[in-house]
Design brief:
- By secondary structure, this protein is mostly helical.
- It has one domain.
- Helices cover 56% and strands 0% of the residues.
- The chain is built from five helices and no strands.
- It has helices spanning 2-9, 16-27, 36-42, 56-65, 75-90.
- The radius of gyration is 15 Å and the shape is globular.
Length: 95
């Protein structure tokens, strides 16, 4: 379930805070779970645009759920990436 929620939560930047609160449940004693509506949003999939091959979503999901994708364990790398992306996000560019 953890990988499925993570997979779903990574597809929309607006879900990142809710996803982070779920992750916190695993590492922070006393962390509070997100609201039920946030959990529902994390398990809802948006339609795939026609220019994206239909099987991309499912193939990526299986890679994450089955552990086929290697994820870095370097938390500092993720922190640096977030700091680098914030100015672009603030400028309205999501690259």
């Amino acid at each position: 379930m953890f990988r499925l929620v993570t997979f779903s939560g990574l597809y929309d930047d607006l879900l990142f805070p809710d996803l982070a609160s779920i992750w916190a449940l695993f590492v922070q004693p006393g962390a509070r779970p997100p609201a039920p509506a946030a959990l529902a949003a994390l398990t809802h999939h948006t339609p795939v645009p026609p220019e994206i091959p239909f099987d991309n979503l499912r193939a990526a999901q299986y890679a994450v759920v089955c552990g086929d994708a290697a994820w870095s364990r370097d938390i500092a790398m993720y922190q640096r990436n977030v700091l680098a992306a914030r100015p672009r996000r603030a400028a309205g560019r999501g690259d």
